[in-house]
Amino acid sequence: MSNTERVKKANISLVVPQADDAKATATVATPEVPSSAVPTPAVTETAVPPAEIGALKMRPLLERITRDQIITALLACLSIGALFLFWYLGTKYKLEFYIRFKNVPTPYDVFRQAIEVASSTKFLVNVAYSVKRIMFGFAIAIAIGVPLGLMIGKYRRVSDFFMPAVEIMRPIPAIAWVPMSIMLWPNNESAIVFITFIGAFFPILLNTIHGVHSMDGVLIRAGRCLGAGEVRLFWNVILPGSLPHIFTGLAVGMGVAWVSLIAAEMISGQFGVGYYTWEAYSLVNYPAIVLGMITIGILGLICSGLIRLCGFFMMPWLAFAPGSKK
Amino acid sequence: MNSVQKGLIDVHDMGVVFGANDNEVIAVKDVNLNVQPGEFVSLIGPSGCGKSTILSIVAGFVKPTSGKASVDGMPITKPGSDRGVVFQQYSLFPWLSVRKNVEFGLKMAGVPQGKRNITARELLDLAGLLSFENHYPDQLSGGMKQRIGIVRALATSPQVLLMDEPFGALDTQTRVVMQEILTNIWQQFRISVLFITHDIEESIFLSDRIYVMTARPGRIKAEIKVPLPRPRTAEMTDTPEFISLVHQLKGLIREESLAAMGPEIKSRGLTGFGMNVGPKGVGQIF
Questions:
Q1: Over the stretch A266-277, which tens digit does the pLDDT of each residue have?
Q2: Which residues, at least 6 apart from B190, have a Cβ–Cβ distance to it below 8 Å?
Q3: Has residue B131 been placed in a domain?
Q4: ipTM
Q5: pLDDT tens, A194-223?
Q6: Measured between CB atoms, does B141 come within 8 Å of chain A?
Q7: Could you tell me if residue A255 is inside a domain?
Q8: CATH of the domain at A137
Q9: By three-state DSSP, how is residue B11 classified?
Q10: Which of residues 198-237 of A touch B (CB under 8 A)?
């Protein structure tokens, strides 16, 4: 998959909340190494000898930090700083022009709330519940979505059978599943995991299918010629060939899973960060609302970061794929 | 490595029709050809004449509509590692290192890791790319990728090697070097080769025999023996024998290339379109 495609994909997925995740994976291909240190993809016969690449890996981390990266880090600080400044000024001067900062807690209020919840395990239990639900829902979505996607992508008849159902189910947002889910599942916990699963499932499934479809057919033919039977072809050619798209699906799916989870927790939950946030609103504990929101943001960031990290380690070759550096 | 007796490709009265009813296209018609064990045979013809279709049939990707194709008397039903294929597009698996790519066929054949490793390294050494064994394909140049493509196809010790315009995407200089490398490898392995190309010089330089195909529907128009001695060297391309073969083939191909352009161009000739066709012929312009 070229980067242009990847970026296009990321843009398309902007309709999905937390599409940043998609963008995050979009750049999985580019490792955080200064461009000067990456061996140029050899255009000529004189590719970088392996010894030299080894030497680059050996160099201490500090030496590899370039001016370029310092600027990147500064801009990142500036970006988050500006957000805080707006919040701080808004709450300090009780800004009121259409949006109202009257009841919005100040950063300091939220900080105090954070200190307060840190003294008991209650908040941590909420976080643990949310993480557990995400893990289960997401794992089940991968376990079903990836194999099914590979089969649908590869076999026309499997596609003919599953796709009509998939196309009908897909537009139903996971949140719309909440009432049905409560009726369907024996307890609250499985209902919430189910909603999380629904959120993650479709992006993973569709991206996996797309991954199989966009694979260069010559690779499949090459695999066949080299003696790969059907099962081995799946395992050794189709799966690794679709992996970049699968990871795009995982990143988007993780974003949607969080959206679905929080919504489900707000409506039907006991425990969980979404529940905490909604409860805070009911109890007129405004700083806790913001704390809940920030916690959700950080958890989402960690989850998509983990996916990116997995992608980086599972697909080291993407660093050299055409278009991975612009 | 291979016994010289094996590797007989036989294509008998073969025809291929794509599509159905109104959209029916006769790609190949009444094709008879063979490659003797250890022989290097080229198939040359204008674009779209079905030469790649013939290779696809021998490789086992496409089933012929009529006729038979066999290797060593065994009818071809599906792709298999007894026939190595080198594709026109780069077909190395980008997620595998160079060495793992070469090992792929052996892995599929159930050869243990240690043995695979040794064979792959030997082959990479032969291709002059042993120092790149741990690189990924995307780190290499086109010529390097194709060299690896060739040794990867040879790793499972196939009886025949099928090559579909393998150097088509390379620049002229690299091409010439690759042709010499290929002749060397072929002489070491003594394997039958069916080589598809539209490059006349390339086919003469490499082959023992050349089949010339007509424009669609593709048929065998002529069979030409290349009497040049082996080993072939780059200097041979300047000898009168070589040049006269080039002229002979150019004449045959030019006619077909014009036919491939459609009946109008065939009757009028290209000058009617304000084009000046040089001695290199039409094929090279388009």
A1: 988 789 999 999
A2: B1, B2, B4, B38
A3: no
A4: 0.84
A5: 999 999 999 999 999 999 999 999 999 999
A6: yes
A7: yes
A8: 1.10.3720.10
A9: strand
A10: 216, 218-219, 221-229, 232, 236-237
